Amino acid sequence: MSPSKGRLTPIQILVLGYAAVTLAGAFLLSLPISNSHGVWQPFIDSLFVATSGISTSGLSPVDIGTYYTLFGQLVLMSIFQIGGIGYMTFIIFIAYLLGEKISVWTGMVARESLATRSYDWGMLGNFFRNVLFYTFLFEFVGAMILAVFWMREYSLARSLYLGVFHSISAFCTAGFALFPSSLMNWRSSPTLNMTVNIISLIGGIGFFVLMDIFGLLYKRWKKLPGHLSLHSKLALWVTLAVIVIGATVIFSAEKWPADLNLADRLWTSTFQSISASTTDGFNTLDIGAMSAASLTMLIVLMFIGASPGSTGGGIKTTTLGAIFVSVGSYLKGRRRVRAFEREFPLTTVLRAFTIFALFILILLVDLIVLGNVERASYLQLFFEITSALGNTGLSMGITSALTSLGKAMLIITMFIGRVGPVTIAMSFLAKPTRESLRFPEEDIFVG
Fold first, then answer.
1. Best label site of 30, 59, 169, 313, fewest CB within 10 Å?
2. Confidence class for position 309, pLDDT limits 50, 70, 90
3. The model scores a pTM over 0.70
């Protein structure tokens, strides 16, 4: 269905919707009631935090726990909750509660918001209801566990609030923490490590994979035949591979304090690898003090990111998987790209390489601009930019020292990372026309 002349496309509506939520959030965060100083926050800073929230990045020029009041923190929590599962999810859910029919046009926007290609509106409705169900279920479980954990140190009310805030932040892979040192004070705690890791992995693996897994378990329980989709298999294998590789590199490359035993080193390495790969952005290590090898590994993990249809960012695990499988197929002389006894469509391969190329282009542009205006080192800037584009939130500690131009560049970068560079590009370039004309084919020399 093509839009009429002058009408916005679903992709353009999606981009404008995220921009509207971001601007509204920035205004609320800038209000004197939102911060402990009782003054208007500079709009560039409130816009930075709001964009970081809607993109679930977690980068901030101020300390969230001390700068913002309860009102400001609740505004921010609402922003990254919306950013994590998409504002269209709430619109679809409210429409169903009110008994309103979903128009084809609204359904197309909703379809773009989670990158699904299904045109079955009934299936889409069920999908979005399941998204909310899984979101609130896992956030509630995580909040209760974390609340009980923090009750040893804080009051009941404070523990409940900390549990809710950090559970939502973990599931939405937002990485916002109410503690100045993130979660470093509890890096030796199995309870905190396992809870945050599991919640982040569930949020980062993607709703498509979650529903696929639960669907398969249900079929097995009913003793019915079933199998995981190619998408789920690829997402799970790539996720496992990058986490194991990341944890191994960090464990081997770090100069650990003498008082940190083997178990704590394993917890910390695994936690930081999961944090970067799911883009949840929490840290139990001082990121600025990590070795160059570990930082490089974190950059790679943040660049790859989570899985499609998840709350995380990055180029996505399946994008990396498609690229590796394509390269492997070409080097083996195969004319078809296949994995797990299934072939990839050519459009999927082209999309994967397009996403990769656009991410590299954005990184280069940001490096050139920020390298010219900021005083930070090349590695610090590279890390910060990758964290912003991958919507991760890990930082080497330079966010608050960025210039206004540097903040503006990262605001744009975080927004592109959330909506997707392909989506942004298509909102400007794509035209709803069919290719009725083909030209003669001619080869070129490459490589």
1. 30
2. confident
3. yes
